[in-house]
Amino acid sequence: MTADALFSLLPLILLALTAVGLVLLIGFYRNLQLSFALAMGGLLLALVSLLPVAGVLPQQATPLLIMDSYALFFSGLTLVTALLLLPLCHEHWRRQTSLNDEFYLLFLLAVMGALVLVASNHFVSLFLGLELLSLPLVIMVGYPFKPGFTPSLEAAVKYLVLSGAASAMLLFGIALIYLHSGTLAFAPLEPGLIRLPGPQNPLLLTGLILALAGIAFKLSLVPFHFWTPDVYQGAPLPATALLATLAKGALFALLLRFYLLSEGYLIGPLVWALTLIAIASMLAGNLLALLQDNLKRLLAYSSIGHFGYLLVALLAVSQSLGTALAVEAVSYYLVAYLFSTLAAFAVLVRLSGEDREAETLEDCRGLFWRHPWLATTLTLAMLSLAGIPLTIGFVGKFYIFAAAVEESLWLVLLVVVIASGIGLFYYLRVILMMTHQDAGPESDEASAPHWSSHTVTGILVAATLWFGVYPAPLITLIRHLTLAVN
Amino acid sequence: MLSWLITLLLGGGLLAAGLGRLHPQAARWVALAVLGLALLWLLPLLGRATGGPWQPGEGAWLLLEQHAWIPRFGIQLLLGLDGLSLLLLLLTLVLGLVAVAASWWEIEQQEGFYYANLLWSLAGVVGVFTALDLFLFFFFWEVMLIPMYFLIGIWGHEARHYAAIKFFIYTQASSLLMLVGILGLAFLHQQEQGSYSFSYFDLLGSGDRSPHGFWLMLGFFIAFVVKLPAFPLHTWLPDAHTQAPTAGSIILAGVLLKTGAYGLIRFLIPLFPDSLTSFGPIAMGLGVAGILYAAVVAFAQTDLKRLIAYTSISHMGFVLLGVYAWNSLALQGAVLQMLTHGLSSAALFMLAGALQQRLHTRELSRMGGLWRYAPRIGFIALFFAMASLGMPGLGNFVAEFLVLAGSFQVNLPMTLIAALGLITAAVYALIMIQKAFHGPAPSAPALVDFDRREVTAMAVMMLGLLWMGLYPQPLIDSLGPVLDQLQRTAAVSLETVHWSQR
């Protein structure tokens, strides 16, 4: 490995060092504020280190990891998301009396897993990254540790068992793919044979479908979504937010890279499977969200729908028209989804008290008149998730439409329209609840918010509006960075 | 220039929201000042629109403004103003002032946010009437919805949540179909010319060349007729109108419905000229069906606002008929109908709102004999009912007459059936007056007659209708170049298509 290749892994190394430092710190001196500062510092350093790293790209650092500009963009996105998320976690934990410093350690490990995922072009690093991401998540879902039975414990066990099963499926799928192709690196799967009509290698297809099922499980796509609402609801808010944003975003970036490098779009049955999953996710996610009175469950189902939309952009990858628009669409939509979802979670965190999380629709009743700024933030988040103009979500939705129209995916597009129509209903319900004139519950914002979570909320609102009204700079950045994926 | 107008309204909204938190009554004055300023700024342009002789081929644009926005997709901030846009903008701002007058005492909660939403919604409408980039048009199309959704959802009547959500889902889902249509055209341009464009001027007539032209056109059509609304897609309207606060109903009926008609005239037919022949009869059929169906349903209503809402559907049927007849007479009629209906329906909704505020009911069965207690309200109601039924001398008559005269040349049977609408209009207008203002009063209501503020707002609209009814020529003149230009554009692209097919 050359020095440059080692250098290109600088963000990962920095994060690992921070994690080690945090272990030592917690071992000698427990202080939530200090642990938070250290974790923030490590993340910030890693983000800044992307700048010099950008100069030496692309680098194949060991056969497992590739640092190209695609990885750079998604590393940046992961780190920004983490930096926005960590203050929200801090806001949550500083309201608790129990000792929760280790949460930040697990958080850092999960971010490292995400960084490995977005830079992976090899099945081994895929699996490593995925486990590095999932295992800390299991513990985070089970937080805070209390004696006896808690909903978070139930959620953690559920997540552990099902996630383990999914990993096993993924591994078996990888083994079958390896049996066929003889390499664990992402490479075109059926060179030469692919354009022939007729039956394709059944082992390869089985492997692909199994691997897809494993990944679809972690992305909670229909029909592998059953764990999502329960885990979302049971987990503490910071863990839910991490699960919904960072974990899923990084994995989808990996899925896109795999799809492109393995030329999965040439394998008919795989495309069909993805189409069916996309349609089912959009419809089921949005329809089931209609029935929810719990905001965490609502966001769980809505995220199922959103990853259905993202799959539509993935399906727009094809040989004929090039991959540019689809890759851009996925990237932009992910940014939009991450920011809007984070904004929604930011409000929920701010509204929670020590013993009780704000998670039901009732908690939002009359919020407009009690906390105009929080209500505005949540409104923007909901409008953005619904894809209404002036918000970043609209440009994302526009991209999905554009990619699908370019590929003439009319049927899928019709489903997007229908699902968006259904989606409006429950997003608007949240907004209407906030406009109720009668006062709601009094138990909000028990203590004054930490300045960092204030800042994060402000940044999220500004980004949602700014990139919704003037998306050109972000588009330029995405085009500049992500199109080098091949 | 035009972007400043939109910025003024948006900024005014922010200011109203901000000041409203400090002092509740400041918001209404801000709204009044902003709208008045905008109106004063636009009025001089009316002179230019009606004045100059037009050089053929010069185009009818009074103002045109262009900035880059999202270069990746060739999306621009392209705003233009011609006679058609100008008249609709004037209508928008006048009705905006009327809406402020109507809400002056009606709104007592969260006034700052209320007037902010009112101004933002109008800003969206101004954007819709001036945008010439299809993406920008879609953008504003949605921008005007959200504040209206809040207006209905927060300050509406008893079933406001149901009505607001229904309104939003209808319009939003249909506008996504339009987005597909817009993108279809932009990609067609990319295939033909190598670059994306959403510019109106680049895409004119291109829809007919697309292999999926019909479906793209249908996407636009559904979005526009939901807004219009036309017969099978109208069911959101009675709910939204009935539940909205008075000002919401005024803006909805007076302005928002016109955006659908405007979209048909400005965008749908120039983009897809072929649809005139292939789809025209169906659209005219829907228009005629709407005229009669809504008139009959209006007659059966017992809720005053609901009755007026159905009359709106009926009147907008004439617009649909006139647009698809697509000749000078019919188009002039359609645009005049948009203006006159804007005034007359706004006035009727303001009346209904005033009655509801005073009597705490919209039920016609609980009214009756009101003329005795409030002769001013009675007279004004009679005036606008006469306008609504198309009495000669008032604008609505001129408009409907022109539409019928124009469509007579195109489709005789449709015209004959549509003319029946004038009779049904008389029935529902008179039954409304009869039930509300004549006959025995159920109990002597504590009814306060219109005050000066309300009479002024009403007088403005009455004068407007009289002017359009007695001397509509200046308006027709200012529309002339625009409508000629649109017809020429459609005709030219039609010829090219037929030529290339040959």
What is the count of helical runs of chain A? 19
Name the largest protein-protein interface in this structure.
A-B, 34 and 37 residues
Mean pLDDT of chain A, to the nearest integer, reads: 87
Beginning-to-end CA distance, first to last residue of chain B: 45 Å
Oligomeric state: heterodimer
Outline of chain B: globular
Structural class of chain B: mainly alpha
* Count of separate DSSP helical elements of chain B: 21
Q: Termini separation of chain A (Å)? A: 22 Å
Physical arrangement of strands within the biggest beta sheet of chain B: 1-2
Rg of chain B (C-alpha, Å) = 22 Å
How many β strands of chain A by DSSP? Answer: 2
Which percent range describes the beta-strand content of chain B? under 5%
Mean pLDDT of chain B: 86
What is the succession of H and E elements of chain B?
Answer: HHEEHHHHHHHHHHHHHHHHHHH
- Count of DSSP strands of chain B: 2
Percent helix of chain B: over 70%
Give me the side-by-side strand order of the main sheet of chain A.
1-2
Please give the largest β-sheet of chain A. Answer: 2 strands, antiparallel
Note down, in words, how this protein is organized:
The complex is a heterodimer of chains A (486) and B (502). Chain A has 486 residues and is mainly α. Chain A is globular and about 60 Å long. Chain A has one domain (3-485). Chain A is 72% helix and 1% strand. Chain A has a two-stranded antiparallel sheet. In chain A, strand 1 (59-61) and strand 2 (65-67) form a beta hairpin. Chain A is built from 19 helices and 2 strands. Chain A has helices spanning 3-8, 10-28, 32-54, 69-93, 102-118, 123-141, 151-181, 202-218, 227-234, 237-261, 268-289, 295-315, 324-351, 367-370, 372-386, 392-406, 410-435, 451-469, 472-482, and strands spanning 59-61, 65-67. Chain B has 21 helices and 2 strands. The mean pLDDT of chain B is 86. With 502 residues, chain B is mainly alpha-helical. Chain B has a domain at 279-470. Chain B has a two-stranded antiparallel sheet. Chain B is globular and about 70 Å long. Chain B has helices at residues 2-22, 26-51, 83-103, 111-130, 134-143, 145-155, 160-193, 200-203, 213-227, 236-243, 246-271, 275-278, 280-299, 304-325, 328-359, 370-373, 375-389, 395-408, 412-437, 452-470, 473-501, and strands at residues 63-70, 75-81. Chain A binds chain B through residues 368-369, 372, 383, 388-390, 394, 398, 401-402, 405-406, 410, 413, 416-418, 420-421, 424-425, 428-429, 431-432, 435, 437, 470-472, 475-476, 479, and chain B through 21, 68-73, 109-110, 113, 135, 138-139, 142-143, 146, 149-150, 153-154, 161, 164-165, 168-169, 172-173, 176-177, 179-180, 183-184, 186-187, 212, 215.
